[in-house]
Amino acid sequence: MSSAESQWTLEQLQEHLQAAVDLEFWTIPYYMAAAYSIKDQGEAAFQLILSVVNQEMLHVQLAANIANAYGLKPLFKCPVYEGTHIPHLDFSLDDPDPRTLFPSARAEIGQLDIARLQGFCLVEYPFWDTGHPVDANPDIAVYGSIGEFYQAVTVGATQLKDHIKAVNQVDAFKRFYADFAQPTITLDGSDGLAQVANLVDAITSQGEGTQRPAGLKSHPKHPNLPDIASYFQSASNPPIKKQFRNTADDIEPSWPHFEKFYSLIQGGVLPETYAAERFPREGTPGYAAQLRLVENFTKFRWAMTEKFAGKQVPQFYVHMVTLAGNILACWQNGAVPAFSHHDLNHSAQTRATFAALESEPRFPLAKAANAKAAAWKAEPATA
Amino acid sequence: MSKSILRIHPAIAFARVGNSDDYYLAPETMAGVPVAGSKPPVMGGLPIRRGTEHDTITDEDLRDASGALKRQAARFKIFAYSEAEAKAYPAATEQEIRIGEPLGDKTVTDIIWTVHVANKKANTFVLEVSNANGPVIDNYGNGNLPPIRNASFYPGDEGTEELAVLNNPERVSRLTIDFGPRTVRGAGAAPVRFDAATEASVYSAEGGLKALPDYPKSWPAKSFPDGLYSPTGEVDTLGHLETDEAGRLVVLGGYGRASAWKQADGSFYQLVSSVDNDGWFDDTSDGPVSAVVVLNGGLPDETRISAGTAWVATADPSYAPQILNVVSLWDEVYDTFVRKLDLQPEIYSDGEYRYDRYASFEDDVAHIFRGTALQEWISNLPQPAKHAHRAVGRIGAETVPADTILSGLAYIRNPNLPQQAMLGVPLMPGALGDSGQAFLSPTLTQYYFLTQWNDRKCSAEPVKPLSPGDLLDKASLINCLGGRFSPGIDLTFTVRQEEIYVQDWRKKEVGPFRIAPKPLKLDGLDPDVPVLSEGYVPLHSTGEDLVEPGDMTKFMSVPWHTDYNSCATHPTSPTIPHNTTLYWSWPAQRPVHVHLASEVKDGKPGPQRYSVRGPGTGSENPANQGRYQDIENILPNWHKIGFVIQDSAIIGGQRNPDQFFEVRSELPVDEGLVIPPWPMNDKSTSAG
C-alpha cells in the first residue's frame, strides 16, 4: 500500500512516535557505553562518538516534542540490548539489505570494537531513495531504516496535522545549535506541521545526511549495494544542513552520524579500550558499579518521562550528567555497563528490588531518598 | 637562648594596586572555605580590615570616602619552629613572633624588616612570540630566547645579542623602576616609601640599619625627563612599608598608574598590545622580604635571629576575592615542590606518585570542588551546567565518589594524556588553557589527588594539619590564579621552574615555597651604575639564588591593565577545527559575567551584566564583548570595576551565604543588554 492510500489514526501515529522515542533513546546507552570504553578521551573515536551521543539526546528531545504535539506523553522504557536486535528497524525490509556491508554488527552493550561500529552504522544507515513511495504502514512501527521510519511518520503526521498542539515542548540544546531556529513546536493545528517537518528533517539530516544523489555508484564488492565511501566523499553530496549543525562542541559538525561511524571503520585502527566482563560476581567493585548505573539510569528514565510530561524534575541534569561517570566507573572496574536489571548477574532478591524500582517512580530524585537503593550500594572497601 | 627557628609567612604574599592611599590587608583565609565561627557565615578569601587581626571587610570597605579603590597590603608574620619540625612539611609552629612578647626565656624587642621591590617589565622579553604555539617556557628552551620588549631602545651597538642588550647598564637604569631596598623596624612604624625622596637602606649586623645614600635609583621621570604621558598620574612610587602594633610588616604597592614615554617622533607610545606594550611602565613590582628578630634588645644578652626570606609581589586588584580558581597558584607552586623539590616524599618520590598513600579530602581535594561550584557567579554558565557545578560543590568528605557527578573522573581533563588539552566540554575545567593548550587541565598533583579520591583512598582530615604558617602560605597562593599562564594575573609560568626557589628548603630558616633572592652588591655604590641587571632568565640562568627584585612580575603584561581588559572570553588557542566557541580566560580572577547586588529581587539574582561595561565596551561580536574596544580606555576606568563578594559580606544585602554579587562598581549598567548563557561563538570567523 502506498503512503497516499494509507489512512492513519491518531493512535497509530502515537505508536510510531513512541517507537521513535524508543529508538532514539535506545541509541544513547549503546553509543555512550562504547565511547567511555575508550581509555583516552582525547582519541578522535571518543570525540566523534560522543558528538553523536549529544546529538541523539537532541533527537530524543525532538521526537518527544513531536510526540507531545500529537498528544502523546512519551515513556522512556527500559531499553534492551540483545543479539543483533535494534528496535523498530528490520533491515530485511531494506533493499538491498545493509547487513551485507556490516555482517559483524552486534546490538549488545560493549567496548568499542568492529562489532559495535558496524552496529552503529546499521542504526544510522542512510535511507536510499528508490524513487518509490515509502511503505508507510500505520499498523506496524517497523521499517528498514531510520530515514524510512521518519518518512512514514511524516505521512501520518501530515494526515493528522489538525491534532497538533504546542504542549510540553522542551528546548534544552538551543545554545548548541545557534542556527536551528525552531527546535520546538509552537503552533497548533496545520500551522504547526511545518515545524513538525522541520524537526523530522533535523533528525534525519543529522543522522544519515541527505538522501543520495541519483547515479550513486555501486559498491565494488557488492554490486547491489551503494558505495558508501563515495557517497560521503562526493563533493556533490551535502552533509548535515547548515541550520542543523552543532555550533558549540562538535569536532565534525557537518558530518552525519553514519559518516562519523563509518570513518572509524575506514580508519582501521581502533583505540585502546578497557577490558571488562559482562557479568561480574556480586560483591565485586564491577558489580557495584553496574548497580549504580542501573539505579541512576532508571531514575534518569523516570526523570525523562516526567520532564516530557511537562513536570519540573529536581536534579534532572545531575542525573543525566552523572550517567557518563557511572558508565566509566563500570569500565574502570572491569564491568560492562549495565542499564537494567536484565543485564545483571544478580540474585533473586536484587532482581525483585530492581523490578520494584523500575515499576514505580520515586520523586524527588534526591540522593539516598530510596532505602532500597542505598542497600545496593554496599560494596567492599577498595582500599 | 631559644633554639627556635624563625620563618616569615606568607612565603609569597600579594599586595594589590588601588588608587586610594587607604588600604586593607590581604586575605589570610582560603577562598571557598567556610570560615569557622563567622557571623554571618562567610567563606574565606575576603581581605582583612586595616588595623585588625582578622576582621574581614564588607562592601563598605572596598573604597575610601572619595570613592577611590583601596589598595591591598601584604602583611607578613614570623613564626617559630622547632628544629625537628622545620625539616618537615607541614611543619607545626610553636608561636607567632610579636614585639613585646616572650620567645623562650627572652623577649622580642624589635623586628627589623628589609624589602626591595622593583619593576623590570620594560626591560625584559616579550610574552607573545609570533608563530609560537607552545608553552611560554618553550621560547627559552634549546638556547633560544624570545624577542625583547622595547627592542628599539638600546643605546649601544646594533647586533648585540639579546641578553647583552638587556644587561646594558644604561638600558637597565632607564627601563627599570628601582628605588632600592628599604628597612622598617619596631611596632607601629610610619610609612617608609619606595620613591625618589626616601633614602634606601638595608639591615646591617653592626648597626641595625645602614643607609644607602648613593643607591642608583631609577624611575620614569628620571629616565625620560622630556615628559611622560600618565593618564591617571605618574609612576613615581612602588608603594611603602610600615609595621603594625605587633611589629608585623605591612607592604603597600603602587596606585595602578601607567606612564608612557615619547617615541623618536616626539609622540607618546600608544597601547597596541594586550601584553607587550613598548614605551610603557606600570607600578606593579616584586622583590624579597627579610627580617631579623631582636631579643632582649639593648641588654647584654641581646640576640638577633634571622627569620630568613619571603617574597612580595604587587598585582592587579582582586575583583572576586572569594571566588576560588579551580587551578590556583597554590596548585602550581605545590605541584612544583611535590614533583621537583621533594616536598612530601610520601606523596611523590623517585619520579612517581605514591598511590598507596591516602589523600586528605579537606587539604588536597575539596578546593577543586569548591572552586568548581563558585564559577557560576563570574561566568555565564547555562542552567544545566550550574546544576552540575553545584552538584560538584555538594561533594563532601563522606560522599561516596561513585555516587557523585564526578564518578570515574569522567569529566576531568587528564593532564597525563596531553591530547585531552584540546578537548572541550564536557571535560572540565571548562576554561581556556595554558599557553599552547586549548583548555585548562588540573596539575598532575591535583589529578593524583582526584584519582586517590575516586579510588576511595581519601580521608576526611589530613594526617597532619597545616600550621598557621603553612596556612598563610597556602591561603596567599590559593587566592591567586594558576593554570592559564598567558601570562596570568598574579604571577606566571616561572613559578613552575624549580630553580627560582631555595632548593634546600629544609635548611633552618628557609622553609618551602621560598623564592631564592640573588645577593646584591651594595658596597661602593655608584649613583650612575645600576645594582640590578636583567636578572633571572628561565632555562638560561644557572646556579642558585637567581632572582632579583622585579624578576617575578617582569614576565607579566605591561601595563597590567591591557591584559586584564582583554582577558574576558576568547576562542581557543590553538584553534580547534570547525570550532568558534568562546571560553573564559580567568573568570575567578577576572570576573566576566556578574550579578549585581543592586538588582537582587526577593532574594534572587537579577540578570547577568558584564563586569567591564559601559561606554566603549560594546561589540557586535561576542568574542570582543565585556571589555574596552579601545584598550587605552581601561587606564582611566580600571578602578571603577566592581567587586564580587559573598552576599553575607554585603551590608544591607540578603545575607545569603550561597550567593555572590557585584558591589561598588562605578560603571554604568545598560539594562537593555541581555547576556545569553554559554555557549557563544566568535563571529569574526565561521566554522567549517
Automatic annotation (TrEMBL), chain A:
InterPro entries noted in UniProt: Ferritin-like, VioB/RebD_dom
Origin superkingdom: Bacteria
Domain Iminophenyl-pyruvate dimer synthase span(s) in chain numbering: 17-214
Gene3D superfamilies: 1.20.1260.10, 6.10.140.1530
PANTHER family per UniProt: MEMBRANE PROTEIN, PTHR34400
Name recorded for this polypeptide: Iminophenyl-pyruvate dimer synthase domain-containing protein
TrEMBL record, chain B:
Residue stretches spanning the membrane: none
L-lysine epsilon oxidase C-terminal domain: residues covered: 431-575
Signal peptide: none
Span of domain L-Lysine epsilon oxidase N-terminal: 9-312
Renumbered residue ranges of the record's region Disordered: 600-626
The protein, known as: L-lysine 6-oxidase
Organism listed in the record: Skermanella aerolata
